[in-house]
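User:
Can I borrow your eye for a moment on a structure tokenisation matter? Would you put together a sequence-and-structure record for a protein of your own picking? Please set it down just below, with no commentary around it:
AI:
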Amino acid sequence: MLTDTRVEVATLLALGLEERLAEVWTAMSADPGVGVPELSETLGISETQVRAHLDELADRALVRASQQVPGLLLPITAEAAMAQLLRRQEEALTEQQRRIEAHRERIARAVTAGLGAHDRDRQVEQVSGADAVHARFEQLAYGTTSTIDSLMPVVGLPEAMLRDAWPLDAEILRRGVAVRSLYLEAVRNDAPLAAYARRMQAAGAQVRTSPTLPQRLFISDRRIAVVPMTPGAQGEGVAIVSAPGIIASLLELFETAWRSAAPLDVGNAVEAATGLSDTERTLLTILADGVTDESAAKRLGVSLRTVRRIMADLMRRLEAGSRFEAGIKAAKRGWL
């Protein structure tokens, strides 16, 4: 059992447990056998609230009925609690990833269908050519009045491009537009882009990172979006979308990615139960699907050398002589 209650609460919070439930569980863990009246006094909440929280903990299998004292609930061990919460968190992330992929496929079909139709209202407009795309972005940005949400699955942008982009971004933030930008986790290894992201954050933008992102996306005022004509391809033009149904799907795609992302300055967090970072777990999952090292590097926004270095370290930790063996051992440990 962990002895530092503050550490226990922080660990449980990191694994997705609500603060009040974490406080109840740690109070029970510190004094097994404690009853509802004592928990009420210790936590400064009513007995009715304590019972409601105990019901929620029971629903999550974090407490169990005593085999010796009828009606008494006992906390499961700290190790079991962390494993249970981690499993729920992994299930939630898997479901989020499934929803992201479903949204991306539905959006791609809708955009393709829109471009194939003669839409009088021009709800889907195709723009080709770097200069035309840049001009359209400027037009949309200056016309934005309330929000901009963007996914940025890119690294290695030229510093000149970042210098040219700053005056427009600064103007948007100065006008009070609420900006949320989601970058690849690999941005931390890209000094110019990391500096730009922090500059945006200092100017008032919300910035988060994720190991992978589904596609490039820019949404203005929750009503107009810019998506690549061919996700993952550069220089093939963009589609300007205003069809409400497609916008709703794109917003849900963004929100799903945003909820599972980490603040810019959190760093590459390591799971307490497995010792894996987000990048390591994502790489294992990608390679388990049969993706090549080159494709994995592109999706993570890192170099091929970095992918191979991370994989070599994982094989060493798993004591595996081959990637096939590493996959089997990773699955047995619950890393996949």
In short: The domain at 5-76 is CATH 1.10.10.10 (Arc Repressor Mutant, subunit A). The chain has three domains: 5-76, 97-266, 278-332. The chain has a mean pLDDT of 80. Residues 177 and 204 are 9 Å apart (CA to CA).
